[in-house]
Design goal:
Number of strands of chain B: 0
CATH class of chain A: Mainly Alpha
Radius of gyration of chain B: 15 Å
Shape of chain A: globular
Mean pLDDT of chain B: 81
Low-confidence stretches of chain B: none
Strand content of chain B: under 5%
Order of helices and strands of chain B: HHH
Largest sheet of chain A: 2 strands, antiparallel
CATH architecture of chain A: Up-down Bundle
Radius of gyration of chain A: 25 Å
Strand content of chain A: under 5%
Number of domains of chain A: 1
Structural class of chain B: mainly alpha
Number of helices of chain B: 3
Order of helices and strands of chain A: HEHHHHHHHHHHHHEHHHHHHHHHHHHHH
Oligomer: heterodimer
Chain lengths: 689, 64
């Protein structure tokens, strides 16, 4: 009876999920309720978690709950600590979920809501969550080794080096593109700029509090910080209305880019306790709070999606970024569907806390599902906007024209209704002077969130909600920027330390300054080019980031597939093999198009050649001609960088295939590095308090 | 109900690292107190927090 009841429940979930997906996919009406998206997502996640993830854990990986984890065996009370599974889940989720799942879906909404939504759902349950879970498992079985170390141990030195270089380059491009998103949200917006600026001294106050005033009182300090942040959002509105103060915070994109570059350098050399660590607490609390609030608001309000299921831009002519639906929707949405970066957290960091292998499914697979859900909410927040408004906010001036009237005419010519008055009124409601050409996703997401929050919790405070949403995104973009620059610095110091040991000392100031400057110069260059590029820069940088991130995911899946085969589980190798094949197809074809396409909006070389011809013929307007040489150089650089990514990826794949071939042919391969089993002595249902 | 609220509060403290020092002291008492070789006293709250925080940010702790 009890068993039958369960079967009936699961059949009901299945039917509900299928109908919700059907409703989303087949809707051709004016609008569709966001509840269908939430329903489809929750049903798919539930079924995938209950059946697919459980099957992988039990049959493919054969998790052993009686086996001691590294956290238990190597428990030192500091970094290796067996920890309650909900706490590990919280840490893991806070670490993997950054601004990526918010920005990617917003940009991909130019294709319509359907392609991105389907990819977020299917990509997460068959790809991203599997990657996170198997990586967590394999690292747990190897004393919490990092992805790079596992690649070196199991596949060979090439795989290890590829993972290291891949990580470093992703970091550089990721920081640049996130910096650009913040710049586009802050340019000529005294309110946004002053609020974001205020987060820096607030973080420092929190840092002092935690370090000197009341050491280790994390919650007290964070509460203080969150209150100050909310005051800063309100205070920004006051500054915006104050004639003498607003001039201090009203800047061009380029000025803001230089400020961010200077800030990034300062943050990388400053001690962590002063800025990075306290900012991370604030961003984690604000992030969790806002995401929960957004979910509640969507459920209360059940907003309607106004974006069509598919737009005409699936043919590659989209204003936000060029390129056809295939492969670019899969590149644009990396985080939220599958993100290689997660493999770095799943290996090395999280396994040190894992108390029992049984928890691997919930932490590895479950946390990724939650991140995917965040991506779905970002997709909803972007597509509740009228499509005309969405494109007016996100289309760069280089595509639709600098003047409002030109931009509106262009957007109307695509068949999306929007008027200058409508945009002016919207900007006024949001407390901004203009919302045109704010490419990058943060402002349109903030408008979407502000209208959802405004409708759910009172409309009078739209401008406050908008700037709260901007602050919310900016604060953890800046956390990623700080943390990423610092990690880049450590990696660089580690590499240089092989040549000159003194450089490897992380506390030696000359080395700290030198390597930090190199890392900041790396992303600062891409940020600078992005800001001076009249096409917005996001159209170049985001695909590059997507390709790099998917490449890292492919490397992680290569390692996992190699280990599965070497463990004698070849017949299950498709579990990681299928997502791997898909990633290889999309990254290779996206890279191919970015390098060789004749379309100047897609191909890097085509764009460089086109601009060079125009420059030589003297047909470029003066301001464009001034930056053209830099843009031409950058396009070529990006092409070579893309080539490099693909070559690295294919080298790792061939390496992995060679190892599996040798294993299957009975030839000697590197031995499996799994640590021998020790029985766990932690008692059942044990909670450490 | 009160028990539940207390448990929730403990989880929040654990998640945020608010009780990290207490956990460390507990670990120290369990593992080092009776071993004769270990004559060192545990770190002070301040020193522990310093070390904990510096260590936390040595590797990749946040992604995209």
């Amino acid at each position: 009876m009890h068993k039958n009841f369960k079967i009936i429940i699961w059949i009901a979930v299945l039917v509900l999920g299928v109908s919700a997906v059907g409703a989303i996919a087949l809707n051709r009406g004016e609008s569709i309720s966001a509840m269908w998206f939430i329903t489809a997502a929750l049903c798919i996640y539930a079924i995938a978690y209950r059946f697919y993830a459980a099957w992988i854990a039990a049959i493919v990986l054969t998790v052993d709950e009686t086996r001691a984890t590294p956290a238990e065996r190597l428990d030192n009370g500091r970094d290796f600590i067996p920890t309650n599974k909900w706490v590990v889940f919280g840490h893991h989720f806070a670490a993997i979920a950054g601004p990526g799942p918010l920005v990617g879906p917003t940009l991909a909404a130019q294709f319509g809501y359907l392609p991105g939504t389907l990819w977020i759902l299917i990509g997460a349950v068959l790809g991203g969550a599997v990657q996170d879970m198997v990586t967590l498992f394999f690292s747990t079985r190897r004393n919490a080794r990092s992805l790079g170390q596992m690649a070196r141990d199991e596949i060979g030195p090439i795989g290890g080096a590829a993972a290291l270089i891949g990580t470093f380059l992703i970091m550089i491009i990721l920081i640049a593109v996130l910096g650009l998103v913040v710049v586009n949200a802050m340019k000529h917006s005294p309110w946004a700029t002053s609020t974001v600026a205020a987060t820096i001294p607030i973080a420092m106050i929190v840092g002092f509090y935690m370090r000197n005033f009341r050491p280790g009182r994390v919650l007290e300090a964070s509460t203080l910080g969150v209150v100050l942040l909310l005051l800063a959002v309100a205070g920004g509105g006051w500054i915006d209305h104050n004639e003498s103060l607003r001039g201090l915070f009203d800047h061009e994109g380029l000025t803001l880019a230089w400020v961010i570059i200077a800030y990034g350098f300062a943050a990388a050399v400053m001690p962590v306790w002063l800025l990075l660590a306290p900012r991370d607490y604030l961003s984690t609390f604000v992030k969790l709070g806002t995401v929960t609030l957004l979910a509640v608001a969507i459920i209360i309000l059940q907003p309607h999606i106004h974006m069509p299921a598919m737009t005409q831009f699936t043919d590659g002519s989209g204003p936000i970024f060029g390129g056809k639906l295939f492969p670019f929707v899969f590149i644009t949405i990396a985080c939220g569907a599958i993100s290689g970066f997660h493999a770095l957290i799943s290996s090395g960091t999280t396994p040190k806390l894992l108390a029992n292998e049984r928890d691997i499914r919930m932490i590895g697979y479950g946390a990724m599902l939650l991140e995917s859900f965040v991506a779905i909410m970002a997709m909803i927040a972007a597509t509740v906007l009228e499509p005309g408004v969405f494109f007016a906010i996100n289309s760069p001036a280089g595509v639709v024209g600098k003047e409002a009237i030109d931009a509106i005419a262009k957007i109307n010519s695509w068949g999306f209704a929007v008027s200058v008055e409508q945009m002016n009124q919207l900007a006024k409601d949001m407390g901004e002077s203009s919302l045109f050409a704010r490419t990058g996703g943060a402002p349109s997401l903030a408008v979407g969130m502000a209208s959802i929050f405004g409708n759910a919790f009172g409309k009078s405070m739209l401008a406050l909600w908008y700037h709260f949403a901007i602050m919310f995104e900016a604060i953890f973009i800046l956390t990623t920027l700080d943390a990423g620059t610092r990690v880049g610095r450590f990696m660089l110091q580690d590499m240089l330390g092989n040549i000159w040991p003194k450089m490897g000392r992380t506390s030696w100031m000359p080395s700290v300054i030198f390597t930090s400057a190199l890392v900041v110069a790396g992303w600062g260059y891409f940020l600078y080019i992005g800001v001076i590029d009249p096409n917005g820069g996001v159209n170049i940088l985001w695909p590059l980031f997507g390709i790099a991130n998917q490449m890292l995911a492919a490397i992680a899946l290569c390692v996992a597939t190699g280990i599965l085969v070497k463990s004698g589980k070849s017949r299950y190798a498709w579990v990681t093999g299928l997502p791997l094949v898909w990633l290889v197809i999309i990254t290779s074809s996206a890279a191919w198009q970015k390098i060789f396409s004749d379309d100047i909006r897609v191909g890097f070389f085509a764009a460089a050649n086109d601009m060079a011809t125009k420059l030589a013929a003297g047909v470029l307007p003066a301001e464009k001609a001034a930056v053209a040489p830099q843009l031409i150089f950058n396009q070529q650089l990006d092409a070579y960088l893309t080539m490099f990514f693909v070559v690295v990826l294919w080298v790792v794949i061939i390496d992995m295939l060679y190892v599996t071939y040798k294993y299957l042919a009975g030839k000697p391969v590197l031995p499996i590095t799994e640590v021998a089993r020790e029985p766990s002595s932690l008692v059942e249902n044990w909670v450490r308090d | 109900m009160l028990e539940r609220l207390k448990a929730f509060w403990r989880t929040v403290r654990r998640l945020s690292g608010d009780d990290a020092y207490e956990q460390y002291l507990k670990h120290f008492a369990e593992h080092h107190a009776d071993s004769l070789a270990e004559v060192q006293a545990p770190l002070s709250r301040e020193a522990f927090f310093k070390e904990w925080q510096d260590k936390k940010w040595k590797g990749i702790k946040r992604c995209c």
